[in-house]
Structure formats: structure tokens, C-alpha cells
Amino acid sequence: MTIANLEQAPHHVVAVVPAAGRGVRMGGATPKQFLSLGGIPLLVYSLQTLDAVESISEIIVVIPEADRQYCQEAVVDRFDIQKVTHIVPGGRRRQDSVRNGVLAFQNQPDFVVVHDGVRPFVSREIVEQAVKSACMHGASLVAIPMKDTVKRVNEHGVVAETLPREQLWLAQTPQVFRYSWLVEAHKMAEEKNIDATDDAGLIEQLGYPVTIVQGSSLNMKMTRPEDLALGESILLSRTTQESQ
């Protein structure tokens, strides 16, 4: 099937949610994906959004081995996440966790949505746009443009150059890929011992095009205690707006 025909064809779209980190920067003994945000485990928000996207038929969550039962009971069952079919153990690195999730699908899908479990404020509309773009082009990446001036600094702490801001974007998730591309990318990374901070970086190394989809500054990754505090403020603001 050619890329030109992808948009019109029916697709089997699935999602992988890597949430296997221990959250060292967040502090405390509880993994950050299970920390409370508005009285609800952080991971629940991402799963609820993906669960509501009509084109996604199945979700696999990747969790530390020791937390799989807790995730099933306290997240998936308690909050009735219908599309989660498997909870699989993560790996040493994020890319290992994503690979574990991707290879866990029993029926080969057409496209895979990869979304961080600790980005709770992604909207359904952004996910849908990312899926649509991937169906048209093969791969998509949600990102936001840089607002600040960016400097490249050498090893001595001296500015080496000012980078063109209009060409720089901050990568987020979801990222959506043709399943065959993503499997190929992770196989290549394993064979060549390549470390990547996101899956789009692996796809790029294969020479496949990745199309940008406009994201949102609210679609932040929760990594530090101050991020949770900001998240609580966002929830409070939304609750206030809805009550008016």
C-alpha cells in the first residue's frame, strides 16, 4: 500500500503507554505514574483520553514488573479503562519499554500511538490529529515551536552559536508510526546499540519522514514535584471554568 492511499484505507490503530519509570527526580517511594493528581493516579488521565479516541482499538500499558497487579486493580479496573488489553513489564530504558509494548500485540496493527503515561493533559483532539497525520504520511510527532532564543554552548560554557529558533520544535507525545516502521526502528536500535530519547528519533535514523503536529504547552511531562503543583493548578482552573 502506498503512502498516498493510507488516509482512505481502514486502519487497525493501537496504543502503547510507557509508564515504567521510577520517577527518581520526583522523589519519594511511589512511582510518579501512580502519584495523585486531583485525587486520581497520574496515569489514569492519559489512559482515559486514549480510551476515548474512537480510532484506537487496543491499549498496552508498560509498567515496572512489581507494579503490574497494582496497575490492573488501582488504575485499569477502578477507573474502567475498557481498551487496555495487556499490562507488560518495562525494560531498563524507555525505548526498551516501548519495544516490549509494541511486540506484545497479538494481531499486527497498522499504526501504533506511543504516548507517555505521565503526560496527563493531552487532548483527544491532539491524539486524533496525530493519528490522521500518520495515516497520511506514515509517521507523526506532536511538538510545539520554541519561543525562547536557543544557544549552543561548548564544553567551556561559552556560547558557540545561536540556533535558528524558527526551525526548532520541542517534541512531545503522542507519536504515531506505521507498525512495520516502528518494529524495524527498534530492531535497528537493538542491533546497533543505539540510545534514543524518543521513538521519532529512531524512525528518523531509518530515513522515514516524520510530520509535525501542533501540540500544546499544557501537554507537559510530569517529572518534578513542581510539575505536579502546576498540574493541580490546571485542574483547579478547569474545574472553576466548568462551574461558571
Could you please describe the fold and organization of this structure?
The chain is an alpha/beta fold and 244 residues long. The protein has one domain: Spore Coat Polysaccharide Biosynthesis Protein SpsA, Chain A, CATH 3.90.550. Helices cover 34% and strands 24% of the residues. The chain is built from seven helices and eleven strands. β8 (150-153) and β9 form a beta hairpin. α5 crosses α6. The longest helix has 19 residues, at 225-243. The chain is globular and about 50 Å long. It starts with 12 loop residues before the first strand and ends with a helix.
Could you tell me the CATH topology label: Spore Coat Polysaccharide Biosynthesis Protein SpsA, Chain A
Number of domains: 1
Helix-strand category: alpha/beta
Low-confidence stretches: 1-6
Q: What is the approximate shape?
A: globular
The CATH class is identified as: Alpha Beta
Strand element count: 11
The CATH superfamily is known as Spore Coat Polysaccharide Biosynthesis Protein SpsA, Chain A
Query: What would you say the CATH architecture is?
Result: Alpha-Beta Complex
Distance between the termini: 50 Å
Strands across the major sheet, in which order?
5-4-1-6-10-7-11
Beta fraction: 15-25%
**Residues in helix, %:** 25-40%
The biggest beta sheet is recorded as: 7 strands, mixed
- Helices, by number, come to 7
What is the averaged pLDDT score? 92
Order of helices and strands: EEEHEHEHEHEEEEHHEH
Radius of gyration: 18 Å
